[in-house]
């Protein structure tokens, strides 16, 4: 069985559109893998799935030739892990990029589903991915603030001070960063960083707030 070129084009375009929707969220948050990366991964995974399932029709029926359509698909699953790992940045106890790596993994699966003709599965997976990335984010923050009180938020002028300087202010008073999230503000100048401290308690929070407030360029510092 072979696919018509119109069906091939339909699947490739569908995979590109669906995975681009996921990539938009990562692009908005200035992740290392953005819109183009997600679209390329999804489209490529779709193409590889098509090749795996239909690319060897001309040799089928030949003596001693056996087709395993899952072979290339399995290699995509393995190979995408290396690409995802490239988006993860570890700096001491601080790890960034895990969500982006997971989204790259997701768009590869979506692309493979479209390549296999499972349009509804791909569409549902896209919707679920967007819910997890966009809608669940505020809920995650709210629960995080409720369960872990050692979160501080600072608004700083990116032209006047770097994020490293803000983090150094915490390191100097022996406070360690467990996790952080940086968002660029609409004016393109100010950045807001949300820092989760490894240390617990009110004393750690107050020390962190005072340390960041003393940094030139930091305009406000509040606790979560």
Mean pLDDT: 82
Q: Please indicate the percent range of residues in DSSP E strands (runs of 2 or more).
A: 15-25%
**Total strand count, please?**
6
Count the DSSP helices.
7
Keywords for this entry:
single chain, 224 residues, alpha+beta, Alpha-Beta Plaits, 2 domains, four-stranded antiparallel sheet, two-stranded antiparallel ribbon, 6 strands, elongated
Report what the structure shows.
This protein has 224 residues and is an alpha+beta fold. The protein has 2 domains: 5-138, no CATH class; 148-223, 2-Layer Sandwich (Alpha-Beta Plaits), CATH 3.30.70. The protein is 57% helix and 16% strand. The chain has a 4-stranded antiparallel beta sheet, with helices on one face. The radius of gyration is 23 Å and the shape is elongated. The relative contact order is 0.12.
Nutshell version of this structure?
The chain has 224 residues and is of the alpha+beta class.
Itemize the secondary structure elements and their pairings.
Elements: H1 5-28, H2 35-54, H3 70-85, E1 89-91, E2 94-96, H4 98-115, H5 119-147, E3 151-157, H6 163-171, E4 177-184, E5 190-197, H7 202-213, E6 218-223
Antiparallel strand pairs: 1-2, 3-5, 3-6, 4-5
């Amino acid at each position: 069985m072979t696919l018509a070129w119109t069906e091939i084009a339909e699947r490739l375009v569908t995979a590109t559109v669906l995975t681009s929707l996921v990539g938009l969220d990562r692009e908005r948050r200035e992740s290392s893998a953005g819109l183009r990366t997600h679209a390329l991964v999804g489209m490529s995974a779709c193409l590889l799935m098509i090749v795996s399932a239909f690319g060897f029709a001309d040799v089928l029926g030949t003596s001693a030739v056996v087709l395993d359509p899952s072979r290339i698909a399995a290699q995509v699953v393995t190979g995408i892990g290396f690409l995802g790992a490239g988006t993860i940045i570890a700096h001491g106890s601080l790890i960034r990029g895990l969500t982006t790596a997971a989204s790259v993994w997701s768009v590869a699966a979506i692309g493979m589903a479209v390549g296999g003709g499972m349009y509804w599965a791909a569409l549902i997976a896209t919707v679920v991915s967007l819910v997890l990335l966009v809608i669940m984010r505020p809920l995650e923050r709210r629960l995080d603030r409720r369960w872990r009180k050692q979160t501080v938020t600072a608004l700083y002028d990116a032209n006047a001070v770097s994020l490293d300087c803000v983090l150094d202010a915490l390191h100097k008073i022996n406070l360690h960063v467990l996790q952080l999230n940086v968002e660029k503000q609409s004016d393109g100048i100010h950045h807001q960083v949300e820092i989760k401290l490894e240390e617990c308690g009110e004393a750690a929070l107050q020390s962190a707030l005072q340390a960041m407030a003393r940094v030139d360029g930091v305009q406000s510092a509040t606790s979560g």
